[in-house]
Amino acid sequence: MNLYGHDGQWLMVDCGVSFNEPLTPGELSTATTKAEIVCADPRFITEQKERLAGIVITHAHEDHVGALPFLWRRFKCPVYTTAFTAEVLRRKLAQVGLTDQVPIIEVAENESKVIGGFTVKWLGLTHSVPEPFGMTIATPAGKIFHTGDWKIDRTPILGKGFSSSAFKALAKDNILAMVCDSTNALKEGFTPSESECYQGLLAAIKAEKNRVVVGCFSSNVARLVALGRIAQETGRYLALIGRSLINMVGAARVTGHWPDDLPIIDAAHLGYLPREEVLAVVTGSQGEPRATLNRLAMNNCFDLTLEADDLVIFSAMRIPGNELAIDRLVAQFKGRKIRTLQAHDTDLMIHVSGHPCREELKQLYSWVQPQVAIPVHGEPKHLDANADVAQLSHVPQQLVGRNGDLYQLAPSLTVRRRAVPVGRIALLR
């Protein structure tokens, strides 16, 4: 949840959630201290909501859009986003009784909107979800480039390959500050393409003679399309188990991101298929207790039963803090002689990140040439590493802060530490 302020008005960029985390950051997670769904405490802005001109959502990942259905009644302002994210959001709003109540303005690549005192222009990127966008936010005091989540993927499974032209053009726009994704700032080189992950998963699955289950994030539609293609190439049938997966593919169909020639069978039919024809994609790659992978491990999934020597592939990163839950899940499968495959078990590329490594950060800084770098989206060590890359890329100034810090960019440059009270609140489904 990011807030940009100018001339007595605020613009919110993203409104997301995280899962199974303590309400007090840094506290050890226990059953009594953590909540199933957590979001940023919005008190600062809700106490002055008449100054909130609008909310912009960069893309459809839960950590960027998941809290909005729960919090919108506290804001009651228009929401701006692209078609795919809007479709995902409408489905979420319907679940909390807000159908047709939230004004959603759909925007397209290179389109500009005046939102209060801010002029926002959408710039297409590549990431691990359809229609990811960064944006420039212009005011009379200066222009900001907010990257959102991104990577440089020249050969994505869905959408256009990453194009540098729009970002090279920003160098002529006198960008005051670039607010940039720091997730992989500790990693050298470039993040591999989704096409490379497709090849890795194909190699892992085509050698199998028994059932294959793949756990991945439901929002990674490109990964789901890749698995659909792999099912066709290996003589298997693709099925989805998990409400979020089915919803996401539904949103992809409506917005033209799901190929017409890619069939999905009803999960209820899996039990009638020979083992070598089953490819199921399921939720729960982070060990979530109520998700499908956990139910498969406990042998109480209604649609599918696994047997010894079947294979479960984790096509997702291990989000920090979820390691114990994932290890327990793997141990349950192994106790039933069901094989598992994680990224660290194999040289095959069965998962790729959606975020930029250091060389990609260097390229974007060199193209945009901002006056100031503001690293976001990461732990302190990631923010510091991003600032280091910016300095090496000849960005004149770097500002590194923490939640609640207020970055003053004009007329003078400074950071007011702990200027805004922040925290976390629990949300109910």
UniProtKB/TrEMBL annotation:
This is Ribonuclease J. Gene3D superfamilies: Metallo-hydrolase/oxidoreductase, Ribonuclease Z/Hydroxyacylglutathione hydrolase-like. SMART domains: Lactamase_B (SM00849). CDD domains: RNaseJ_MBL-fold. Pfam families: Lactamase_B, RMMBL, RNase_J_b_CASP. One of its GO terms (molecular function) is exonuclease activity. Keywords: Exonuclease, Hydrolase, Metal-binding, Nuclease, RNA-binding, Zinc. It comes from Marinomonas hwangdonensis. Residues 1-201 form the Metallo-beta-lactamase domain. It comes from the Bacteria. The lineage of its organism: Bacteria, Pseudomonadati, Pseudomonadota, Gammaproteobacteria, Oceanospirillales.
